[in-house]
Amino acid sequence: MRYYIIAGEASGDLHGANLMKGLLRHDPSCGIRFWGGGKMAAVGGTLVKDYRDNAVMGFVEVLSHLGSILRNLRFCKEDILQYRPDAVILIDYPGFNLKIARFAHERGFKVFYYIPPKVWARGESRIQLLKRYVDKVFIIFPFEVGYFKAKGVDAVYNGNPLVDNIGSTPSVHMSREDFLRSHSMTDDGRPLLAFLAGSRRMEVDYLMPRIVRTAAILKERMGGRFRFLLAAAPSIDPEYYGKYIGDSGIEIIQNDTYGVLSHSEAAVISSGTASLEAAIIGTPQVVCYGMNPITYFLARLVVRLDTISLANMILGRHIFKELLQGDCTPEHIADEVLRMTDDRAYRSRMIKDYDDMRAMLGERGSAERTAADIEQFIKGL
Q1: d(CA 191, CA 181)
Q2: Per-residue pLDDT of the chain (381 residues; tens, 9 = 90+)
Q3: How far, in Å, CA of 59 to CA of 297, rounded?
Q4: Distance between start and end Cα atoms, the chain
């Protein structure tokens, strides 16, 4: 079998790597050509484009990068025609991938969508594109099962692959002392506070100044009570964080987000996959997010949800607080950090809700089951 996989973001790189492992376990001789990142490259195959060169989100931001997006689309189509895969597998990244779905389908390629567009939030018209141009859709959130069924899409739910990722990460199971030692740090006994500023530069540019000011406020109120750890996203150079951190006392840890979350008392997180990861791990969190004011205004016109965090969506209620746009201030973030660490009833309720959410995500082995299904669907088709 020959597969062409397209992932356009850090979360897609993570899920793509797991899916590739599953495909290779079922067919060790299969060929894989992909758009993705370091996690997928570590599994094998041939990296065509690194997602870090293409990751753009937001109405205004997409318009400013339209030329490069169109060039990438043309290149991708030509590359698929040259490679002639048995299947094209698309991972999230809908603005780009839905165009590729149509192109590949019209030229006779089998098309599978792993983690489809979040049409339940906005862009419901895309459902017709999924029906028309995708042979099979694979979903990773339990609440999507009923939604897609009601819309006439035969979607397959095999559980959520993050359960495997987290469970197989060594630092999650270490003692706190061993975790810090593995990053050449000594344990001074202070509670750890995790900061996750996002996987795109525009997210980092928005949140890092607020994170640095939050750290200063917590120092003013609590002295040196907390030790601040920033989990660096693999898509961002550590030097990029450095221009914000200065003498704030925030320490950077690379390539171990799960370890940082596992050993922290609480976390300040940019919305996205990291928020769901924190919920699976069980770390109390506050989600903080903002963007270009024009983009935010337009997004509010089309997004139909009262929450932006996947863990809240899965459980169907607000497990943790979301501070969005104007509410995302250092003062509000600091207030919520202290509530999560000092209000025992509030903290315990959040952790209990995490337990309920995890029970809905399914057993381990999600990506491998999806890989097996893809192989069987190709043979059946």
Answers
A1: 16
A2: 999 999 998 889 999 999 999 999 999 999 999 999 999 999 999 999 999 876 544 444 444 456 788 899 999 999 999 999 999 999 999 999 999 999 999 999 999 999 999 898 778 889 999 999 999 999 999 999 999 999 999 899 999 999 999 999 999 999 999 999 999 999 999 999 999 999 889 899 999 999 999 999 999 999 999 999 999 998 898 899 999 999 999 999 999 999 999 999 999 999 888 999 999 999 999 999 886 666 655 555 545 557 889 999 999 899 999 999 899 999 999 999 999 999 999 999 999 999 999 999 988 999 999 999 999 999 886
A3: 10
A4: 14
CA distances, 284 to each of 221, 280, 321 (Å): 20, 10, 10
Looking at the DSSP bridge assignments, the partners of residue 90 are: 6, 113
Number of CB atoms found within 10 A of residue 11's CB = 21
Q: 109 burial class (0-12, 13-18, 19+ CB within 10 angstroms)?
A: buried
Distance of CA 15 to the CA centre of its chain: 9
CB 240 within 8 A of CB 166: no
Neighbours of 24 (CB within 10 A): 17
- The residue to which tokens 């209990």 are assigned: 352
Say if residues 251 and 216 touch (Cβ distance below 8 Å): no
In what helix (H) or strand (E) does residue 110 lie, and over which residues does it extend? strand 110-114
- What is d(CA 229, CA 81) in angstroms, rounded to the nearest whole number? 46
Strand partners, 125: none
Is residue 116 within 8 Å of residue 155, measured between CB atoms?
yes
CA distance 259 to 176: 9
Cα 111 from Cα 152, distance rounded (Å): 18
